């Protein structure tokens, strides 16, 4: 498939989402050198409450799931048409996510182990481990939605827009129980249901159900926006779309009805912007700037907090960095050189990781499960272990209480190994379906 046949707008959404995630995390990261030499990270959203409004611009995860559903719907449809199985499709797709995540985790865990053995302060190690794992919440949710894709897509083919509507209704009911009846475990369902609405809307978008009538995107944007405003103004939900310590209920842990409204509104705005942005992307100069960012999306997503730790060690531990009061005018003015410096360091990190990316691509070619895989017990067990391990790392970081996370590390290693070692039955032959780069997972960069 040629470059011109790809949907450039989907690639743009990937690049734009990654850019805002990285910038958002960097902007709200505040570092302070304590008198005893330790580095602490005050929570900007709690220290300067008005900054919670900034999350309306930086909470861009709905577009991850919308673009992911768009890509996954087409990929699974082609796999079915060429004789692929759900297990084979899922195994190959999951491995594209697990290999770079596993390589990143191995590097971080090795560093944690060395630092712990060297006697690094437990609080400092826990803070660094949390910073390197804060983005991991996305991975288990996306793996779960990928595992559910065959069933979700079958429901989409039969019921269309009624599927995300039903998921939204169940999500609101679960949130009502979690908030009103104080049943937090019911609310955990919303991690899949709320983000799953965006994912399912991606199926609908690809098949023209959202763009056949121009009123639909307008209704989504306006209806979702008004519902969000009402839930914040009249209901119990905060404006922040990122977790703020001590804030209850939260819009993200688990995703709330307000977050669901924001998902619908943001997806509607995305559809409204599609036509003018596509015209802009037809210009080769613009496309050449967007394409590399999308191709490096997984690397950027995983590694973007490493520059923060590097700059903290170079400038804060040494006392070289100026430290105006967090949230002051001088502090905001210093955000400009802060972002430029972090961007330069991240660019160096991406360049240095290119050999690793090529190695992971070669490893994927040798270990990816076959498209026609049927007997997949080890695959499902491996994915279950990976989801549990990634969830634990996302919740507690890579160094909880300054200690090495033995269970999470073992679970991730074993789970990924089981997915990699899944093979076709002896003597079976399958022909892998042709798959375009745009069919790759929304965070893929291992081709």
Percent strand equals under 5%
Q: Tell me about the biggest sheet?
A: 2 strands, antiparallel
Pick out the low-confidence regions: 425-447
* DSSP summary: helix tally: 20
Order of helices and strands: HEEHHHHHHHHHHHHHHHHHHH
Strand order of the largest sheet: 1-2
Shape: globular
**Topology, number of strands:** 2
Which structural category fits the helices and strands? mainly alpha
The radius of gyration computed from the alpha-carbon positions, rounded to a whole number of angstroms, is: 22 Å
Number of self-contained structural domains:
1
Q: What is the straight-line distance between the termini?
A: 15 Å
The average pLDDT value, as a whole number, equals 90
Summarize the amount of helix as a percent range.
55-70%
Summarize the model shown.
The chain is mainly α and 447 residues long. It is built from 20 helices and two strands.
Feature tags:
447 residues, two-stranded antiparallel sheet, 2 strands, globular, disordered C terminus
Protein described:
- Helix 5 (86-117) packs across helix 19 and helix 15 (306-316) packs across helix 17 (335-352).
- This protein has helices at residues 8-28, 44-47, 55-58, 61-81, 86-117, 122-133, 138-159, 162-180, 184-187, 190-206, 215-233, 257-281, 284-295, 297-303, 306-316, 329-333, 335-352, 354-367, 377-396, 406-420; strands at residues 32-33, 39-40.
- The chain has 447 residues and is mainly alpha-helical.
- It has a two-stranded antiparallel ribbon with strand order 1-2.
- It has one domain (3-439).
- It has 20 helices and two strands.
